[in-house]
Amino acid sequence: MAELPQSIEDTLALLEAGGYVADRALATVLFLSLRMKRPLFLEGEAGVGKTEIAKVLAATLDRPLIRLQCYEGLDVSSAVYEWNYAAQMIEIRLDEASGKVDKKAIERNVFSEKFLIRRPVLQALSGKPGKAPVFLIDELDRTDEAFEAFLLEVLSDYQVTIPELGTIRAAEPPIVIITTNRTREIHDALKRRCLYHWVDYPSAERELEIVRRKVPAANERLSDEIVRYVQKLRDMDLFKLPGVAETIDWAGALTEMDKLALDPETVSDTIGVLLKYQDDIARISGGEGRRILDEVKAELNAA
């Protein structure tokens, strides 16, 4: 198992070893989060690489990745634990058939850990010392405030209370990464327990490096044109701006088509890889898309 980074430079090197191109600000807050054993709260638009940070950490530190994918209506039975009721009923029937009449003993038996189904939160608190898992709480903004309130106990003391068993505490706190796409505000009480970082769209230079790493087979000229084109799209008032994930997908798609450079027809045919709303596609499919492509070609020729 790899050791935790001992400096910001080590953190940058750790992320780079996992193929993640990070800036120093992100590496700094991640380093502090690991050193202070505090959850890291990552906020930003969809597709900018928030979730990938947790995946890279788990891979480079050789630790299990436990992911809690949030959604509307998420409750304790889905996120934390539930009892295996079918197995409990069978156990009760077997006890009764064998002649056991001590109801308290039967109750203690059926509410023991062997009938406990551990969901992601409880799994994250059950890590072994020295190899605590990376616990990803993904898209927290999709849940409701009631679930946020429950997380306060987990993030404050790294413990969960189960009425039938008592309080279960982590032998070693997990590495907690929380992501949100900011579709709603998260309560301050939860944010105070975390270190915060806004993950923005990358600069053109950093995004080009990301494309080179993720799609190494892509032509150099094509990669440069793709990144410049996407960067210009992000300056427009679109309903949903393309993220880094879409840039990578577009580069991969055009490479599969053996394209060496962008042209109007190719952009029009593949724009659905980059943009996911018809109003945005309709706007780019007209003269606006050609204008952007002309600007990209002119800039590269001048360079």
UniProtKB/TrEMBL annotation:
InterPro entries in the record: ATPase_dyneun-rel_AAA, CbbQ/NirQ/NorQ/GpvN, P-loop_NTPase
Domain ATPase dynein-related AAA positions: 39-194
Family annotation (Pfam families): AAA_5 (PF07728)
Molecular functions per Gene Ontology: ATP binding; ATP hydrolysis activity
Source superkingdom: Bacteria
UniProt cross-references to CDD domains, sorted A to Z: AAA
SUPFAM superfamilies, sorted: P-loop containing nucleoside triphosphate hydrolases
PANTHER family for the chain: MAGNESIUM-CHELATASE SUBUNIT CHLD, MOXR FAMILY PROTEIN
Protein known as: MoxR-like ATPase
Native organism: Phyllobacterium trifolii
Lineage start: Bacteria, Pseudomonadati, Pseudomonadota, Alphaproteobacteria, Hyphomicrobiales
